[in-house]
């Protein structure tokens, strides 16, 4: 099976799961991607956060799709998805990577401010 066939089968499977479960295709992609990463030992017990994009102080937009704590080196792995439900998605550009990076950064910045300390946006083990 070539790459194009695998990609089509993968997307069709995600679409089918989303239809059966009545969920969002982007969320199903995140679930599937994290499952694959967990199966390959890249992450231990990843957690999905369904926060979506939120406006924060200064009208900045923050976003995070999930996290995992790495027991090996005691690091926090954060992830954000740029899933496109298309057989021919647009290329991931550096400007898009920067945009996603800043949304994740703003999430961390807001999480560390005093007004969010009472909220458990990230629960550490």
Number of strands: 5
pLDDT below 50 for ≥5 consecutive residues: which ranges? 121-125
Mean pLDDT value? 86
Number of helical runs?
3
Approximately how much beta-strand content do the residues carry?
Answer: 5-15%
Rg from alpha-carbon coordinates:
16 Å
Strand arrangement across the biggest beta sheet = 1-4-5
Separation, N- and C-terminal Cα atoms:
41 Å
Sheet with the most strands?
Answer: 3 strands, antiparallel
Oligomer: single chain
**Range of helix content:** 40-55%
Number of domains: 1
State the secondary-structure class: alpha+beta
Task: State the order of secondary-structure elements, H for helix, E for strand.
Answer: HHEEEEEH
- Describe the global form: globular
What structural keywords apply?
alpha+beta; 3-stranded antiparallel sheet; 5 strands
Q: Could you write a compact summary of the structure shown?
A:
The protein has 125 residues and is of the alpha+beta class. The protein is 42% helix and 13% strand. A hairpin with a 5-residue loop joins strand 2 and strand 3.
Could you explain the architecture of this structure?
The protein has helices at residues 3-21, 25-39, 94-111; strands at 47-48, 54-55, 61-62, 66-70, 75-79. With 125 residues, it is an alpha+beta fold. The chain has one domain (3-116). A hairpin with a 5-residue loop joins strand 2 and strand 3. The protein is globular and about 50 Å long. The protein starts with a helix and ends in a 14-residue tail after the last helix.
